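Inputs:
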Amino acid sequence: MPATTKHAILIVDDEPDVLFSLAALLRRDFQVYTAASGSEALEVMAEHPVHVIMTDQRMPAMTGVELMQRVCAEYPQAVRIVFTGYADTRAVVDAINSGDLYRYITKPWDPDDLVDLLRDAASQHDAMAAKVELLNELGSYFEDALRVTNDAAARDSEFLQEFQARTLKLRRQLELIGEAQ
Amino acid sequence: MKVLVAEDSIVMRTVLVSHLQEWDYEVFEARDGKEAWELFQSEDFSLILTDWIMPEIDGLELIRRIRTSTRPGYCYLILLTAKSDKEDLITAMEVGADDFLVKPCDREELRVRLREGERIIRLQQELAQQNQQLRETQAALVESEKLASLGQLAAGMAHEINNPIAFVTNNLAVLRRELGPIIELVRKYEQTRDFLDDAPAELLEDLHRIEAECDLDWVGEHLPQLLQSSTQGLTRVRDIIKNLRDFARLDQAGCDDLDLGQAVMSTLQILKTQIDEKRIRVELDAGSVPTVLCRPDKILQVIYNVILNAVQASELGAEVMVRLMSNDESVIIEVEDNGCGMEKETLSRVFEPFFTTKPVGTGTGLGMAVSYGVVGDHGGAITIDSQPNQGTTVRVVLPIKPSDDSMTASLSKST
């Protein structure tokens, strides 16, 4: 993801005041989408790329953890966060332990901490995306590398330039993974 | 057992007293009804033997007075009489005699009548004791019911309040961020105004009027404080809710072994500012006590509340004693201060949520309510002795290992 574009965040809560308030807080740092229910959230996910999704746990129809299970299956690269009143903590801890969630936040949250946490979540997303891409590319990159080493004809060609560009790109992806850790 | 013999005949009295002493009663003598009445008012007798016919106050009058007196405890009354008419006996029993003996008394008859009296007295005492226990149990039951329903109320309320607190806090953060640049923008407009000669007169007029109304200097200066104090107020509300949740025990942590000596030390460290401010000398008698299996965060909260209360109740430069003791089953933390103490009325309400005698804003009235709940959950007990203007001693008794019941209760709550 180019540094100039904002990360996209989807906020899900059945209380409009919470959605309005969070959108106001995050609008400067992120591209913010909002949804008032689990099903509405899935509609938004289908239409826009979403890097981080943050949902309330207690909602009628679909709970936050249930929504996250669907998102995990359909959009595994979206970083998943649940915010919750203390009473629901148990369900959320279980969800984290089973690997479905990145973090959970208790209500009421601290606004500054929340922004920091979402920034971390966004870089976590970039790292994961970079990892996937890195793994996809490595196979053919090794083939090219062998060609550069063994085939003298390849060395001063257009092919070499392209190879160098790929090397830089892969290195950048490695850095992204490193930053998030 | 204390027995009073009221008899004006010296021969009869001597005989009775010698019998009674032989049977190991603690005997008091009265030569007439008046003396008997005076003795009755200064001593607690379980049993009184009284003659009927005596000068000044006779036996019947004595019995009447005793039965209407407010002295606590029951006194078994045997009337000695030469009269044996049925009507006389009925009169005596109506007035309040428990039994009667016809003079001259037979030694064996006296013995069995006394034994009967003792049996009644014993029953009477047992009954009184059971009644007392019943009353205490009932009071405790009412108290714990009251606290439990308050807990439920608190839990429901806490949940409902959380959401609005969340977004209002958040909105304030947004306002704080957005308003800064807006103030700056207006300041820039102000500077630019001198170059606005070409602007329509009407607009300039409006500008002057609005400027005068909004007092921009004041706003610029005080806006940060307005926002900050609002945020702090919300933080306080949030803390109250947190305490309420603790009182209702919605959020459970795991069990662990806790070294109470260390717990007290670290609590004193946390309270250092308050302790130093009032120049309180804390006397710690920690001894060596076994560790306690408990939820450490909760117990630390209890210790904190109890010591903080002691410090707040104390005068400048006073002493607070913290003692740790143990027996086979439990560890006891005792915190004693020589501070302002509490009236009976206050003491009886100490564990009620929101009951506080501290000035508004300094105490939430939840510390002792939360502590009561926490200690109760651990199968322990918290008791308070207090005298106004002399001081207060709080004892927290914690079982070394919580009973199975309290463990299962807390486990089932946390799943």
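Residues 147-248 of chain B form one domain. Flag for discussion at group meeting.
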